[in-house]
Amino acid sequence: MEALFTIEFTAYVGIAVILYAIRQATGLSNKYIPSIAILLGVAFTSFESGSFSSEVLLQGLKYALYGIGSVAAIKYAIEKGEEK
Fold first, then answer.
1. 53: left (phi over 0), alpha (psi -120 to 50) or beta
2. What are the domain boundaries of the chain?
3. Torsion angle of alpha carbons 21, 75, 41, 31, nearest 10°?
4. What is the pLDDT along the chain (84 residues), one digit of tens a residue?
């Protein structure tokens, strides 16, 4: 249960929520969502660490991938729920 409250979990859930909100509010095409996720992930990680390095870039990419996966899972769950 402690893992749910770590900064890593909070970061990627936050990015997922922001991505989902951007997608729903603007009707943005799916092809732009990964680029926005990468920008948000790297920006958050560099803000969190206070610098920019290759580790920061990789951590930001990891947050972006988690966020994109979460948005896809939410979208799939909602679509499956509407079919029933």
1. beta
2. 7-77
3. -90
4. 565 566 677 777 888 888 888 888 988 888 888 899 999 999 999 998 899 999 999 999 998 888 888 888 888 888 888 776
Q: What is the pTM of this model?
A: 0.77
The rounded distance, in Å, linking the Cα atoms of 54 and 60 is 10
DSSP tally for the chain: helices H, then strands E: 3, 0
Q: Which amino acid is at 45?
A: T
Neighbours of 43 (CB within 10 A): 13
Instruction: Say if residue 81 is exposed, middle or buried (CB neighbours under 10 Å; 0-12, 13-18, 19+).
Output: exposed
- Of 31, 35, 50, 40, the closest CA to residue 12 belongs to 40
Give the whole-angstrom CA distance, residue 37 versus residue 43.
Answer: 10
Nearest residue to 45 via CA among 25, 28, 65, 20: 65
